[in-house]
Amino acid sequence: MTFRLPVFLGLGSNVGDREGNLGRGLSLLAGRGFSVTALSSLYETEPVGGPPQGPFLNQVARGETSLTPEELLSACLRTESDLGRARDVRFGPRTLDVDLLLFGDLVRDSPDPVLPHPHLHERRFVLVPLAEVDPRVRHPRLGLTAEELRDRCPDTSRVVVHVQAGARS
Questions:
Q1: DSSP H or E run through 57
Q2: Within a 13 Å sphere around the CA of 99, how many CA atoms are in the beta-carbon half?
């Protein structure tokens, strides 16, 4: 059974072939039960927090799954690991980072994953592509749309279109 509620994943990479890492990550996730229904453009973003490091490519994928939130989180973590993610430096450089942002309107504080993602509303590198994919999706705790959250976000970090949605081959 596939849940028809929208599930949103945030993906980022700032090591190696960033665009390739995102594409390979999405392919692996598709093989693990996440069916993409829409993808944002790729955005080049400056790192937020952590040690000095290169810029990220970020995007948001909307999809459907028959997985539970725990199973989807596990699939995301396995995908990161398969692409060489090392978790030795908090907020450090990474080949692939996959965050479960929203799972329909599910709200929960534990167990993992916490939903919605606890920092979703604070990060332009997530809100800009999320608002592109689905500007009307609502944050289930705050009641604001992705577009409203993006417009009110206090984060001023740089988020610039790198590759327009639909322009990738």
A1: strand 56-65
A2: 22
Q: Tell whether the torsion through CA atoms of 139, 141, 144 and 150 is positive or negative.
A: negative
Tens of pLDDT, residues 32-68: 999 999 999 999 999 988 888 999 999 999 999 999 9
Q: How far apart are CA 36 and CA 151, in angstroms?
A: 26
**What CATH architecture does domain 3-163 belong to?**
2-Layer Sandwich (3.30)
Query: What 3-state DSSP class applies to 27?
Result: helix
Those residues with Cβ within 8 angstroms of residue 101's Cβ, 6 or more apart along the chain or in another chain: 8, 9, 10, 60, 116, 117, 120, 126, 130
Only one residue has tokens 């955005």, namely 43
* Domain regions of the chain by residue span: 3-163
- Cβ proximity of 48 and 123 under 8 Å: yes
pLDDT digits (tens, 9 = 90+) for 117-149: 999 999 999 999 999 999 999 999 999 999 999
Q: What angle do CA 122, 24, 41 make, to 5 degrees?
A: 45
Catalytic residues: 85, 94, 97, 99
